[in-house]
User: Fold this.
Amino acid sequence: MAVDRSQLIQGVKRGDALALDQLLVECRGDARRYALRHCATSEVDDAVQETLLIVARHVSSLKAAASFAGWLFTVVRRECQRLSRKIFAHEELEDERLEAWLASSSTAELRAELACALESLPAQYLEIVLLRDFEELTMSEIVDRLDIPLAAAKSRLRRARALIRDYLLGG
Assistant:
């Protein structure tokens, strides 16, 4: 027998971690279906993951359990929009800036900057970059080694590379 979402939300508000887990499982399918309609295909998993994180952090502050579905879809739509904006933010101008910086820097300087960029990464992002770009493991090998889903591995790698790029460009 499925538990009513409003009961789960009330459980979350009381601090019940199991209720939160079950609520996230219950709403994941709805979030994914909605994201499939509003996101670029490559961004669906990221949008769902970010949505579930937002739900986990903020559902206890929801005033009325009946408004949960509308709020969930609003969060998914905003995440899809945010991810789309982020993709288009890396325009050719940044590529030109990066190429100019690379051309004007010495190898030693580039190595030092890259080392600093890598050191600035959170552990989970550093680990995936090292496995993929330095150890040259395939995504399947990384998934096996880290025991995470493929979508999570791809998402982490994409975010790690974006963080490195932002660091190197001074953003």
